[in-house]
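TA notes. Do not distribute before section.
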Amino acid sequence: MSQSLIRAISSRKNQLGFGFFSRFSNSRHFHSQWPITTPKCSTHSSLGSFVTGSRRFSGNLIPELNHTCLVRQTNGFCSVSLNEVSDSNLVNEGDNIDIEDVGALDKKKPVVVYKKPIDFTKIDAKLLPTVMIIGRPNVGKSALYNRLIRRREALVYNTPDDHVTRDIREGIAKLGDLRFNVLDSAGIETEVSSGTILGRTTSMTANVLVRTQFAVLIIDVRAGLHPLDLEVGKWLRKHAPQIKPIVVMNKSESIGESLAEVASEALALGFGEPTAISAETGLGMTALYEVLHPLLEDYMVLTLNDRCSQNDVTSDENLSEEDESKLPLQLAIVGRPNVGKSTLLNALLEEERVLVGPEAGLTRDAVRVQFEFQGRTVYMVDTAGWLERTERDKGPASLSIMQSRKSLMRAHIVALVLDAEEIIKSQRSMTHSEVVIARRAVEEGRGLVVIVNKMDCLRGKQNSEMYKKIKEAVPIEVQTVIPQITGIPVVFISALEGRGRLQVMNEVIGTYERWCSRLSTGRLNRWLIKVMSRHSWKDFASQPKIKFFTQVKARPPTFVAFLTGKTQLLESDIRFLTKSLKDDFDLGGTPIRIIQRSVLRTSPSGKSSGGSTSSSGGRARQRTTADKRTVSV
């Protein structure tokens, strides 16, 4: 009986396909006829079975299939295909393995194999190649930068005797289906002293150029090959010998027969054939695409195949499910000229990213940089010194003021930088221009953090008392001049020495999380009952009848109070509710908006009595008393 049972189980086992592998696992004939070709990636299949789509093939079904197991590349991942033998996306390179080794593939980490063509639009911005635009001053570098990023971010102004661009600007270029990081640099002049502004900008460009992969060398076709262009070429070979730049002849929209002559002169640079473009009109962008595309594609194939693994693949499936406070943060550093904004940005990045110096008004462009802090992406914008625009301000100064205001409106959190030395001299915490900045940030609904810089100037015993007075007086005075927001965080730092860097970022992150906070309607209405009971009203008739209270949006927190009847909240009532929200739910440093809406009453006849009105926080409405014969205004 036992032997019959064993034979039955063995027969059933063979029918299920397990006996196929047990009989042929050591057969040379089997391995020579059906080798499995696979790259170094996991097939995600178990021993004796393969899964393709919704079909499962056991060992007994293998003779009905093609005798080659190929691997398909789909969106950067490897998958097994058992019923197709030719495809343009199939990877043919790999190792011949035996059937008994298939189970061991599950233990290996999959390796993503990339081949041409590469879709640059689906690649993470951190992996994109970097292209720097270089050249002598006033050849159109910033104009080409704006053309590539499709926005007017870099300042463009015709100043032959001055240099508009002084810092390195970074953006994502969109040239057809190409995507790459593009850097706009200051004009290079090699024969300048190291202490001057031009010498410092050239040195900063050299430091950033070492970390780039490609470069675009611009010459002015109207001026021909200038001697300074040859000097820039020599400078480039010295500081970046690994980079062979692409020579571009800008401003070629109105050049006719002389274009070929200038192109022949540009060969003296030794970087190959030049490409004629016009950054202002967009002429020649197709030719520039044809030059850049094969170079960037070859680089991406090598880079992705070297770096990609299962841990490198990022997915955006859960992006919509993330908390709003985990989204990238936009931080704008604003303040008066020469208070240490650029020094603070360098201290936060821990590198010399923007130009700094004792000269006032050194920063002209609003420089936007990206960095990671505690797993969070932060975009910081270093703005030019905030001044009131006058009729005398023309040219780059006027453009800088407008750009600083735009940066403030685009930011999530505004870091207002104050000067400790100026506070001591003027005996007040904030000047008129700084109060204007803070109030404008509040009006735009941005979170606010106040930073007092240059506290290292108050060292020593003789300044110890002044140091204590400033730390006590500044928060109180800031709260006095900006009553719209309570609980504004004030941080005392020394950007030059790097002290207070972590404290600044912690306050910024905390303010941003409060700015993105959301409160449930049930929690708000339970809170409302307690708040309304502890407020002192004149009488029961004067108390507004709030039916319920809810939050309709965040960033900044916005609430709606639904009231019954025609009674509306006064300014004092809105200030009371705002202060109670900030105190009870820890919403300091963020503006709070309260909107009023009247709930329509339906009469027995079916007609609605009373109109639906709404008003923003801070606006008083006429109040109707209980006695309908008299109306108080």
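Switch to the second chain here.
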Amino acid sequence: IKNGTILRLTTSPAQNAQQLHERIQSSSMDAKLEALKDLASLSRDVTFAQEFINLDGISLLTQMVESGTERYQKLQKIMKPCFGDMLSFTLTAFVELMDHGIVSWDTFSVAFIKKIASFVNKSGMDISILQRSLAILESMVLNSHDLYQKVAQEITIGQLIPHLQGTDQEIQTYTIAVINALFLKAPDERRQEMANILAQKQLRSIILTHVIRAQRAINNEMAHQLYVLQVLTFNLLEDRMMTKMDPQDQAQRDIIFELRRIAFDAESEPNNSSGSMEKRKSMYTRDYKKLGFINHVNPAMDFTQTPPGMLALDNMLYFAKHHQDAYIRIVLENSSREDKHECPFGRSSIELTKMLCEILKVGELPSETCNDFHPMFFTHDRSFEEFFCICIQLLNKTWKEMRATSEDFNKVMQVVKEQVMRALTTKPSSLDQFKCKLQNLSYTEILKIRQSERMNQEDFQSRPILELKEKIQPEILELIKQQRLNRLVEGTCFRKLNCRRRQDKFWYCRLSPNHKVLHYGDLEESPQGEVPHDSLQDKLPVADIKAVVTGKDCPHMKEKGALKQNKEVLELAFSILYDSNCQLNFIAPDKHEYCIWTDGLNALLGKDMMSELTRNDLDTLLSMEIKLRLLDLENIQIPDAPPPIPKEPSNYDFVYDCN
């Protein structure tokens, strides 16, 4: 009990649970409503939840939901608000109780699923009931394979779409979360079919109109769900990306013939007589060379590397068919150039497709914490192909600006990657805006940016300066160490990751001002301002810490579950090991906090601070300190070796005593 607080005696969780269990079965509507209201607020407490669940409370709630509508059908007309509130409190209590992870999701009946699905499918449903129902459906799909199949039968994308067209952002968020969950858990063979249904129902344009371009800010949770949808959509390309071309497959070879036909159609086709067979072969070889393939005789061999596999060929065909003028111009422009300055269209397309897949992380699972979605990808049904078409034209333009030859291929690809990455960070709202950003990021502009960055991080390599650096480094490291420890004293709020992100639970950890103890404790919500010391009940003496482990070595990352395979969560995880088999597990809110905490804990244990942030801070501070110390030497050449010591003078007559 905190010092100075008033000790209030209240009923125990077991007694509370027993009383509420009886009260929610009361025949009086008012008493029942009051009991359900209390249950909804008390269910957040894990001790109470455990006691209530032990009394078989969950099955009582599910029975109430299943039978509720029939039983109160007559009363509904007279007491509609009361009925709506009762159902809302019942579902809220159910969501809170299930969120503790005590009961398995697999135990629910089809009747219960149908009832929850009916609340979602019915129009004009109370907002709070709809919100809880969507949350329950999402959790069912994510936590149980059997329930995924049952929910998928009960609910269709068509029934979810109307909820996106409303104005309540929270309902829209829950709806997209359910669609994402169905998408994520769908078997591989069903995913493409589901994507086709989403396209048919115009999900993308509905999200663009009612969510992205709605006249209100997008909150973090909505941004996260849009990011997940973006990742899952791009992951549909993984199958083509990992498929090698079969040189014997006629249909696939016909695509290459089609690329050749569109580019060189103007030239007269030779007759199909046997005499012209050789001539035709040599002409094809010449055309494939003009198209920029590495293997002129059999271009199919160029598509046997995965990634990008067949995805590169799909992109090339899309560009040739939908942007025909640009395609013909690029191919003919390069085939008429001198050999050494031509930009090979085939090779460029294959490498560019691979690079774009890396940038968009095609094939990787969505992160639990990221909300980095790009509005422009929601503006077109074939956004990846259109993205490729813009970038292949950029590559050709950059190639000309750099006056590159085939030896410079990798340099050109690096510049193009930088141009694309810089344009994406500005989050253009449409593909046209993205194109405009790229227009402004010409090769000359990239050179200027690189030059200014180089100037800022100027690295002095002469020996005297390196010696000066070595001399200054320990005091700068000490400065960084103090900053890290001061940040640990301020403390950080960490999120407890559970299966449903929206039910966020927080805990806070901070170092005592004397650097001897770590104080930590649970919080109800994300703190605004400073957290009082007495609210952090638990403590861990620094002297008891045995080790700090990160990433895959953390105990909470070895547990089974979705987090285990999530790369980004792995990168933010660290644990403090103390006593025998005890640990304190963390998942940092972002990379910056992760570096601060791992550095600070290592500093407390007398180990080196190894994080990327420390390296960057050290470079920046060293560079600034050296520049400050060398200010007086502006425009003076610093010699590599110290000047020679002059010979001793023949006499010391010039020495005189000031006294």
